[in-house]
Write a structure and sequence with these properties.
The longest helix is centred in the N-terminal third of the chain and has 18 residues. The protein is built from 6 helices and 13 strands. It is of the alpha/beta class. The strands form 2 sheets. Strands 1, 2, 3, 4, 11, 12 and 13 form a 7-stranded mixed beta sheet that branches. It has a 6-stranded mixed beta sheet with strand order 5-6-7-8-10-9, with helices on one face. Helix 1 packs parallel to helix 2.
Length: 259
């Protein structure tokens, strides 16, 4: 199985970049499933029905999110519907939506878990306990291929989660920091791991945000409104190959394409 995971798509420039680059790349690499993190795909942040539709039309089979998943109330009914869009599984049980889902194609099934870290993030259930519980549900359905989008701030927490799940899932891919890391590897028990898949958005920006807005906010501490950034974009992500019978990872490589 060939799985393509695309890092956080930021705003309309990121959505347009995905639309431009994703279809041809999927065809080139014979991708079976494409998972896209879309939690910042709406203007400003969060995800809207329109930005989700844009990502699906660009080739996403399933959309994951993160700490901004519930910023826009317009998405709540969509999260509660049948579309393959998920929010962190360790959100409070009263949150709209679900934390994992299964995509199926040509007799192949891939379970995707959206998980949020606990260090320097909004309050959520302990991610280690939450993923243990979720894996029991998935295993009861006999699914061998499992990908975890671990949306977290701390590198150490992401590394810890990777080793914690090594041999139990096909891949643990980090999101949230928007900076692609160079540590892709197959862990000792055949789980593909990468600390952060990176970002799909404007290259000359601060994590996809207008440089002056972001700099002024960090420098002054004032609540400055972020503006949509324009310019040349790059699509970051990771390509994973798994054994069809076992779900174990056999190959991982970084993806970074400038439009």
């Amino acid at each position: 199985m060939i799985i393509l995971f695309i890092g956080d798509v930021v705003g309309m420039p990121g959505c347009n970049c995905a639309r431009k680059l994703l279809p041809a790349f999927k065809k080139l690499k014979n991708v079976d499933f494409c998972i896209v993190n879309g939690e910042n795909s709406a203007p400003g942040n969060g995800i809207l029905p329109q930005s989700a539709d844009h990502l699906f039309a660009s080739g996403a089979d399933l959309i994951t999110t993160g700490n901004h998943a519930l910023r826009r109330q317009e998405i709540y009914s969509v999260l509660d519907g049948n579309l393959p869009i998920i929010r962190p599984v360790n959100f409070h049980r009263e949150a709209p939506g679900r934390g994992w889902d299964v995509v199926e194609k040509r007799g192949m099934r891939l379970a995707v878990i959206n998980l949020m870290g606990s260090l320097w993030m909004d309050y959520a259930e302990n991610p280690f306990d939450a993923v243990d519980r979720t894996l029991k549900e998935i295993q009861s359905e006999g699914i061998r291929h499992v990908l975890v989008d671990f949306h977290a701030e701390a590198t150490a927490e992401k590394r810890a989660m990777g080793f914690y799940l090594d041999g139990r899932v096909s891949a643990v891919i980090g999101t949230h920091t928007h900076v692609q890391t160079a540590d892709e590897q197959i862990l000792p028990n055949a789980t593909a791991y990468m600390t952060d898949a990176g970002m799909t958005g404007v290259i000359n920006s601060v994590l996809g945000v207008h440089i002056k807005n972001s700099t002024d906010r960090i420098r002054t501490g004032l609540p400055i409104r972020f503006e949509q950034c324009e310019g040349t974009c790059r699509m970051d992500g990771v390509l994973i190959e798994t054994d069809n019978k076992t779900g174990k990872a056999v190959h991982i490589e970084r993806v970074s394409i400038t439009e």
